Amino acid sequence: MSHIDTEKLSAHLRAKGINLVDKTILITNYSGSLQESDLSEPANCSGFGRIRHFRLDTNSDWNIINPLPILPAAKALGIDPKSEIKAQVFQNAVCNWRCWYCFVDFKLLSGNPKFSDFLSSDQMLELYLDQPTPPLVIDLSGGQPDLTPEWIPWMMEALINKGMDKKIYLWSDDNLSNDYFWKYLSSEQIDLISNYKMYGRVCCFKGVDQESFSLNTEAAPELFDLQFELFDRLLNIGVDLYAYITLTCKRETNFKSVIPRLMDRLQNISKNLPLRIVPLKVYEFSPVTPRMKGIHRNLLEGQNFAFQVWEEELNRRFTMGELKIPITDVVL
Ligand code: SF4
Asked: Is ligand 1 within 6 A of the CB of residue 18?
């Protein structure tokens, strides 16, 4: 199987996705896209945004609650955590991987000018504010926001300049695929991010080992290991970090050996890290079905066995009291 050349594709997509002179980012416009038909309500912000309803009660038969970003947002905003929170989402229009289960139409990941345009953070905020009740959370999503890591500090500066940095919670995603955060941000920008109070970031671990990682993302297997290194680096600068993990892997996986090893690696970063990670169950749904091949049905089945062992390991490594700690209070 040939793999994505992540380094090459990342550089290519970064060049398409950012304008350093104008301080603009290539943002997806949903109008006419496949993703538009999947939105629960029409796109907003002239097609460049969407409102996402995050809910505590997920319908996963794994019987776990996804507290992200509700608990971090509520804590930062000083409000009671509600069972549902609305966020204003902007998506950058580039991603360097092609996860078969991605809910984004792949046409919206290649910097296609038909479905995107360059916007500054000020322009995004103007569009966001031009609605009757703007949500208290802004989610900079993707795509892979970290192909254009400047987006985060630029948005922080725009919020500070508008006096909104203490009123709005900023959340962003990261697929842990590259070191652009370190390569392209100045030390001042990194300081701004680490000291910005109303910001949280969710990183996504993909798969349980090199093989499943590669089957999920189409990237080279060894990049599985890079995810841990990148997460560790971000943790060390004090960012309020959380993670998702997709456990999709072959049902023939030796779960009893692979999952404990995965947990060990996470705990080598920080003993409590597994408690800040939310496993995401992957479902077959409309954008995913046309991409699915036989192997993907196998991976869908495998995730259930992986989750079972993941839970067993959590119960073996943590006390009942520790397992009940709200995700925002887990100390890393
Ligand atoms: S990294 Fe995220 S945005 Fe990119 S293809 Fe995978 S799921 Fe989709």
From this structure: no
